[in-house]
Design a protein that fits this description.
alpha/beta; globular; seven-stranded mixed sheet; Rossmann fold
């Protein structure tokens, strides 16, 4: 596989079907520690400035704990460097809501680069076979994780998340849209031009992402009592499911 930015399809007017193009970070051993850290920083910036964390918080804030400890418990699937749950923790604590979390990721190197979390834990695990009992957490979240999986595996990930969640499954990801892809190509030529991993993976992520109807159709095969797909600017989708 050649990860050349110029090998990506040009911007388009009509929305193409979802493209299962491999991303560099999905390939074991494809990046150095320095490149991985730079890519994790880029993803954190995208979540911070382009609505990833904000879209999650909007759906998390109304939730209340179900355990006697009064702590809201959260599992972050595909936690990466841990920036998202740490930001959520700060927001919850500012609102006087006790909060604890566990983040899982299959990438051991990404976990090793994460700062030691307070009131949190980082675990290497597979999102498709979560190592937790049923109803372990109040809520299961993910950010920029779903698009890394095929439709079938996305359904498995959602099913596993619904199994271990007591209240909600809330997952934020990209929306595949012509203008979004154009924006990613522009960022690749400007902001990400010195980051070869994100320069390729950023636009590739848009090609691999979902439309609202596609994500809704995938979720229909999961044991949710209710599921809604919300659109957030700019080009974010949030799946909000109530486990059945």
């Amino acid at each position: 596989m050649t990860w050349d930015h110029d090998s990506l399809p040009p911007p388009f007017r009509r929305l193409p079907k979802r493209i299962q193009i491999p991303e560099i970070l999905d390939e074991s051993g494809a990046v150095t520690t320095t490149e991985l850290q730079k890519s994790l920083n880029a993803m954190a910036a995208v979540n911070r400035h382009l609505g990833g964390t904000r879209s999650l918080l909007r759906h998390l804030r109304p939730l209340t704990p179900t355990s006697s400890s009064q702590e809201l418990s959260l599992l972050d699937v595909g936690v990466g460097g841990g920036q998202v749950p740490r930001t959520i923790q700060a927001s919850m604590e500012a609102a006087d809501q006790p909060f604890r979390w566990i983040g899982i990721d299959r990438n051991r190197n990404a976990l090793s680069l994460a700062a030691h979390p307070e009131r949190g834990a980082m675990v290497q695990a597979d999102a498709l076979t979560l190592p937790f009992a049923d109803d372990t957490f109040d809520v299961v979240i993910s950010t920029l994780t779903l698009h890394h999986f095929s439709d079938e595996d996305t359904r498995l990930l959602l099913a596993e998340s619904a199994r271990v969640a007591r209240q909600r499954v809330i997952m934020s990801d990209l929306e595949r849209h012509p203008l979004h892809y154009l924006g990613a190509r522009i960022l690749a030529l400007t902001w990400w031009r010195r980051d070869p991993v994100t320069r390729f993976d950023g636009p590739a992520s848009v090609l691999r992402s979902f439309t609202p109807d596609e994500l809704r159709e995938i979720a229909r095969g999961v044991a949710f009592r209710e599921v809604r797909i919300h659109r957030h600017l700019p080009f974010r989708l949030v799946l909000d499911g109530v486990p059945g």
